[in-house]
Specification:
three-stranded antiparallel β-sheet, single chain, about 20% helix, alpha+beta, 3 strands
């Protein structure tokens, strides 16, 4: 399922019981891009809507009323290559792990 901000989310079909399938999310602007949530979709959506995660799993905080600043994709790429967070410009502690 496509979500606001260019991400994708779905359920990882792990086992015969769909009620136990965890939620998997691909975040366009998140690092790492893939995230696995060990809860069902209903619980995931409940926690998402109530902003109960440490950070928005979809990588778009506007869902929680926190609108970020716009950054042109070329500026985001420049920041990324400089070891900075593409959205905030702050130092990225994981910058050495990216190729």
């Amino acid at each position: 399922m496509a979500v606001h901000g260019g991400g994708r989310m779905g359920r990882l079909m792990a086992g015969p019981n769909p009620d136990r399938w965890p939620v998997i999310v691909w975040r366009r602007h998140g690092h790492p891009h893939w995230a696995l949530f060990d809860c069902g979709m209903a619980e995931f959506l409940r926690r998402l809507i109530r902003a109960e995660f440490d950070e928005c799993p979809l990588g778009d905080h506007s869902l929680w009323g926190r609108v970020g600043i716009f950054g042109h994709h070329e500026e985001q790429e420049r920041r990324f290559r400089a070891g900075l967070d593409p959205m905030t410009g702050e130092p990225n502690p994981y910058a050495d792990t990216f190729d």
